[in-house]
Specification:
Structural class: mainly beta
Oligomer: single chain
Helix content: under 10%
Number of strands: 31
Largest sheet: 20 strands, antiparallel
Distance between the termini: 38 Å
Radius of gyration: 28 Å
Length: 595
């Protein structure tokens, strides 16, 4: 269940009226339709969810040359994005919850900049105005009777979990059925199972007739519907000057942002950078600083900013209020070193300190995701590029990096009121690198290439771990399918769809696809679970000019992705995107005509 198609159309038109005036037009349209990939348990229930994305953009620009030193650009842009998500025809075929979504975003704007070059100065000033129109519609219903069950039953591990008996609609009915009421009393439910929320009974499609005490407006359970609209206006003014003096280069500037969205913010943002070219040793050193106003993500920003909605408050335990813009201090330090004509090394280290740092959350594990804000974040890391220019037809390029992404609670914006210790988001990775080798024996002939990629593993915070060396690991928080995706095992026993793992002795617990901390050593900040390290290899051959044409050229490329057909996770239960495996071995043939 992973078919799809995509269409793209793009065109650029350039027209010069006079030696001083010209017009440029960029226009594009793209449409994609695809089935949402099913997990094994979703296949068993005949889940059939699909999505469609449509985007068009138009951006004309007028350019006027006042003189050899002064240039003016004035442009307009319009972009429209529409995302539709379709549930299964039978809502109860959708695992855990059924959802439909229609989200629209229209971005209109004007921009203008004036460039002036004189002597050691290269000055640029400009302004941008944007108006973004947001429309959000979605509906949601529960399709798993255990998610908001009024009664509790002991599972195989001895934990109290939601009962799947759909005839029970109120905690008062539980004792007569030999079950425990899910009323939030001292001994039950356990922390992993929230107490029964009456208002959610109104959208529980597995229990068509809600209890009278649920407070529903209809006699039958129905989908929860949301409709929201929002306008976001932004104005930015900036002035910068690049000053070149001898081996020195200075970049100084200031930017002012005025944000008028669902919240109101404004900020003056200075920027400065300096670099020095040490020519005798072919060395360039650079440092920079920027103050940045981080405006909230627009995707489902309206629902994220809702307060006082009984349904949403019941799910998330309240709201932290509308999402405010973030304030960031960003620092860079870099070095470029050339070793003759044969090797160039270029590296940067960066630090980003942000107040009101953004992340994403979702609505009951559905594709309805939305932005949230944390108190602050500290992101740092390096990236480096090592390249060997073409030498007798042979070239090498290596890029590598490290990213530390630490987020500090409490939550300060969006749906939810979370608080707790420091944690790392799933973009955090200790090391990754990609090496590309290519050989072309002669300039107008075929070439061959080889890629090697290594990833040390992203954070996978949803994985169960051993709290100590004696307490059995409770694995009932993951479904059988999720356990299989994670490659979990207990000694020589692996889960199946019909026989998931329940508990496991810490000494026997492990995973073939995840790196789980040793018993008693897990720490969300300093030692979180991660995806297991992996090596991937690709190969390709091609010819960029098959028939050695002058005005018309044919090209051919053959590519093999994942040569060894390695099975590995890219991420696991990511809030934003779920679980993804790396691409299995695949073959691609590409024939091109260039004119």
């Amino acid at each position: 269940h992973s078919k799809g198609n995509e269409q793209n159309v793009f065109d650029r038109v350039d027209f010069q009226f006079t030696n001083a005036d010209s017009v440029h037009l960029n226009a594009g349209y793209t449409r994609s339709w695809f089935q949402n990939p099913d997990s094994f348990d979703a296949l068993a229930s005949n889940q059939d969810q699909r999505a469609q994305i449509k985007t068009y953009n138009v951006a004309p620009t007028w350019t006027h040359l006042f003189s050899t030193s002064t240039l003016l650009n004035v442009g307009f842009f319009a972009r429209h994005d529409q995302f539709n998500y379709y549930p299964s025809a039978n809502p109860l075929a959708d695992v855990s919850a059924t959802a439909t979504q229609q989200r629209k975003l229209t971005n209109l704007g004007l921009r203008s900049d004036l460039s002036y070059v004189k002597g050691i100065h290269n000055v640029k000033m400009g302004a941008t105005f944007e108006h973004t129109l947001l429309t959000e519609d979605f509906s949601l219903g529960l399709t798993d009777p255990t998610i908001n069950s009024p009664c509790l039953v002991a599972n195989a591990a001895g934990d109290l979990v939601g009962s799947g008996d759909t005839s029970l609609t109120d905690p008062s009915q539980c004792q007569a059925a030999g079950l425990q009421p899910n009323d939030g009393s001292v001994m039950n439910p356990p922390p992993a199972v929230p107490a029964f929320i009456p208002i959610l009974g109104c959208v529980d499609l597995t229990r068509p007739t809600p209890a009278a005490g649920d407070g529903c407006t209809t006699a039958q359970s129905v989908l929860f519907g949301f409709h929201g609209r929002g306008d976001v206006r932004e104005i930015a003014l900036y002035l910068q000057d690049t000053i070149t003096k001898g081996n020195w280069s200075f970049n100084v500037g200031v930017r002012g942002d005025l944000y008028r969205g669902l919240t109101k913010e404004s900020q003056i943002e200075p920027r400065a950078g300096i670099s020095y070219n040490l020519k005798p040793s072919n060395t360039v050193m650079r440092v920079s600083y920027a103050r940045i106003l981080e405006t909230p993500f627009n995707e489902n920003l309206v629902v994220a900013s809702v307060t006082g909605n009984p349904f949403l408050d019941a799910i998330f335990g309240g709201s932290s209020g509308p999402i405010r813009a973030g304030q960031r201090n960003e620092f860079h330090a870099g070095l470029q070193q050339a070793f003759g004509r044969y090797l160039v090394v270029d590296g940067d280290y960066l630090w980003k300190y942000t107040h009101n740092a953004y992340d994403f959350s979702d609505l009951l594990n559905t594709p309805i995701f939305f932005p949230i804000g944390w108190h602050n974040s500290k992101i740092s890391g390096f990236n480096a590029r090592v390249s060997v220019p073409i030498f007798h037809g042979f070239t090498v390029l290596t890029v590598m990096g490290h990213a530390s992404a630490r987020y500090f609670q409490p939550q300060v914006g969006g749906l939810g009121t979370s608080d707790g210790p420091v944690f790392r988001i799933d973009h955090d990775q200790n090391f990754q690198q990609t090496t590309h080798l290519q050989y072309q024996p002669w300039k107008r002939g075929p070439w061959m290439a080889f890629n090697w990629r290594y990833d040390s593993g992203l954070v996978a915070g949803a994985v169960p771990f051993a709290a100590d060396t004696t307490t059995p690991v409770d694995l009932t928080g993951l479904s059988a399918d999720q356990q299989m995706q994670a490659g979990l095992f207990c000694g020589s026993v692996f889960p199946t769809l019909s026989a998931p793992l329940v508990t496991c002795d810490p000494s026997l617990y492990g995973s073939t696809r995840l790196k789980i901390p040793a018993p008693g050593t897990e720490n969300d900040d300093h030692n979180p679970p991660r995806v297991a390290p992996r090596h991937l290899f690709d190969a390709s051959v091609g010819d960029d000019d098959l028939f050695h044409g002058d005005h018309y050229k044919w090209s051919l490329r053959l590519t093999v992705i994942n040569l060894t057909n390695k099975t590995a996770l890219y991420n696991f239960l990511s809030t934003f995107s779920g679980t993804h495996f790396v691409t299995p071995r695949s073959y691609t043939a590409e024939l091109g005509f260039h004119f």
